[in-house]
Please model this.
Amino acid sequence: MRRYSNKPIATLASELRAGLLRLRRRFVDAAEALIQIIDPQQDYPYDFVVYRVTGYRPTTPEAGQELLRGRSLVGDLQSLILDVCDSFDLRPEDYAAQKTYDSAALARHLGVSGKTIQRWRRQGLVARRMALPDGTRRLAFLESSVEWFVQQRGRHIGRAVRFTKMTPAERTDLLRRARRMASFTRCTLNQVARRLAARTGRAAETIRYTIRRFDLEHPDQAIFPSMSAPLDERQKEDVYRSFLNGMSVSQLARRHRRTRGSIYRILNEVRARQLLGQPIRYVYNPQFELPSADELILSPEPPPAAASPAAKPSRRAADDLPPYLRALYDTPLLDGPAERALFARFNYLKHKADQLRKQIDLDHVRTGDLKRIESLLLQANMVKNHIIRANLRLVVSIAKKHVGGAQNLFELISDGNVSLMRAVEKFDFSRGNRFSTYASWAIMRNFARSVPRERYRLDRFATGQTDALDIAASLQYYDPNEANLPELRESIDVVLARLTPLERTVLIDHYGLDDQGQTKTLDQLGRHLGVSKERVRQIELRALKKLRKLLHPQQADLLG
Model:
């Protein structure tokens, strides 16, 4: 299916492709007949279009009242014709009463170039896709379609056709006038072509083609020599910076004496190089490869947390809080499903952008591909900002507990916000943990570097259950003064998950970190595991050493 400007026409094309085989040629012919009566400046209701193409009215009256702009409707009907033709074998003998041309034959018949035929197609010349006897499928033009188009645009057609009738003397005179114009007025190729077209009555494209061909065949006598020499990387960067600073494409074309098309190609090339040099980091998930990934992840939009029954209610801000902190309470907190949906969307959008970026060909950069990649990255950034705003209170709750050193509260919050942003980039939503737990450890590790070390001299995990719970309690999400056992348990589990099953069992049973809180001696653990008491002690020491490395070298003293 091709791209359509009007979604209803795309839907109609899908329905016609699946319609009765014997009716599809009639749909194609009716669509062309409709093109021939459309005024590009008028709007047309969708039910009118459906009736003219199929002979039936839409089943839903509401859909039929949608207005479609004439200019875009012509292009969509041309796409519809080709899509329907692709769904069955339409052959030249189906139109035995008239002659058919392929693109090359029509160009020879009218005495124009293949590019001119392509331009006429964009202007309304209808083409069909036909199956040929050799098994190939090609674009074909009916004689009646060509006659109608020539009749509608006779003046423009005549100017293009006169290209082949240019005599050597006329060509020499044209090149002489172009050289004089380029030398004394410093016009671009497009400007010279337009001025000479107005004076000679020839098509601007014909003149432009003649000059460019002469320059390529005679580089030592080129009228626009700068256009033959490619710009170096520094010059291309200068063009791009000038464009970003507000200089128009026309101004850049005049400055560098190049066509507008070449300037657009330079801008796209630089944009593509920048995209290729920009790292796109995301957490991959196998569901990104599913055929229905777009439907599962991108639609519908994740519901706001406030609308979810499982969402935690947003607490009311205290009246004495500064304006910035009060504003944080305006953003609803995220519940588990909404959080996972947002992280899935965030990483999937970046995955799609990365996959599209891998298809970029610097020799043939397409503007549509660049816009698509940039749009995906912009959407991902919007999702990231949503997640960050919903978790800013987490940073404040942790920062409030470490005020009193060289940094004030807002300096700590600023520092913690940076850690929060990095945590969003690295969080793996598929593991089932809450982001608050992961982000809390990231923020704590950052504070361990930025806040004086003596603020953290706590003998964590070394003195038993009480100190271990104190550490986890410092990671409490929304209110450090309220008990939150599920979050506390989750904080401990995140740390212990980094250990081997044997190491995890020793620490949990020795310090009573399970739900029952029952502690066991090293001797009891040894009998339970079938090893010696000394071996259990070695396993415990190894586990504590791992935890020291996990927190950070600067935090090693926290574990005793």
